Amino acid sequence: MSDYSEICLKTFLKDQGKLFDEPVAENLEEAEAFLEDCMAVVADSLEEVREYFEEEGVDVDGMTPEDLEEASEVFPLPDGKYLIVEG
Question: CA 25, 84, 63: angle at the middle one, nearest 5?
Fold first, then answer.
């Protein structure tokens, strides 16, 4: 079973253009395979998004929660969680 919920996969399919110039997936199965290949992460809050970026060595000092949410790698999910995809 996938680590990514159906809503997560659908959101990525719908919004993948904010991170990629061309589609990387055209259906739920392709989206799931892509997210697994790039080890995408689901965070429960913007604080977890900040912690993830800090652990990855990204300078997030001075970034507001809105800045984090609008980052091209961050996909806000309808359930209040966040999908982080490194392109």
Answer: 135
Q: What is the pLDDT of residues 12-24, one digit of tens each?
A: 999 999 999 999 9
Q: Is the pTM of this model over 0.90?
A: yes
Residue 20 sits at the vertex; the CA angle it makes with 19 and 23, to the nearest 5 degrees, is: 130
Q: What are the Cα distances from residue 64, in Å, to 23, 31, 40, 47?
A: 29, 29, 22, 11
Structure tokens at 24: 């990387």
Across 1-87, where does the E strand assignment appear? 41-43, 74-76, 82-84
Q: In 3-state terms, what secondary structure has residue 67? A: helix
